[in-house]
Specification:
Elements lengths: L1 E2 L5 E2 L2 H9 L4 H4 L2 E3 L18 E3 L2 H6 L2 H9 L6 H4 L3 H7 L4 H16 L3 H16 L15 H5 L20
């Protein structure tokens, strides 16, 4: 198993068989990038029945920028329709309890929008809601993410960046 410059995992024939034998979820198996060195016409009997084997093409991967790769993968995130269609800006603005919060959130949302990160915010809302519903405990926050008041309002972390006067530039550089 190896990783390319985009962070994609490329599996050998043995790796693919091991995943199947370990009972990995179909979502992993159905997007299995097989090393170009593996002869797909003569792969083991176990792998020949897996419909989602994809031959890894290094030339295509090398021609793909990180931004193109990220955008393409954002379209494939599992997220219920209610979250995909959520007006995230309206939702976060509705969580504001003061004029200062509205001002800060407005500034941050413009930065998120300029970077094309609204889908990420929708996904984070879905992730936090799912963890909360399933009683999953996560940390209070760490690193530069705590500088985002929007992430605080979405409950990604518990550090009130407005209260501590943390500059959003620390997060969105």
């Amino acid at each position: 198993m190896k990783t390319d410059h985009l962070g994609q995992i490329i599996y050998s024939e043995d790796d693919g068989v091991n995943l199947l034998m370990q009972g990995q979820p179909a979502t992993i198996i159905n997007n299995l990038l097989m090393d170009a060195a593996v002869d797909l016409s003569s792969v083991s009997a176990v792998l020949e029945h897996v419909p989602g084997i994809i031959r890894y093409d290094e030339s295509v991967a090398q021609a793909t920028t990180q931004e193109q790769f990220d955008l393409a993968n954002q379209l494939n995130w599992f997220m219920p329709e209610e979250y995909k269609n959520l007006d995230i800006a309206e939702h976060v603005l509705g969580l504001c309890a003061s004029d200062a919060a509205l001002q800060r959130v407005g500034e941050e949302l413009l930065l998120y929008q300029a970077r094309g990160l609204f889908n990420l915010l929708r996904y984070l809302k879905f992730l936090v809601d799912t963890m909360h519903q399933n009683r999953v405990i996560w940390g209070v926050g760490r690193g530069s993410a705590v500088a985002s008041y929007v992430l605080y309002l979405l409950k990604v972390h518990r550090i009130d960046s407005l209260h501590y006067n943390l500059d959003i530039a620390e997060f969105l550089r």
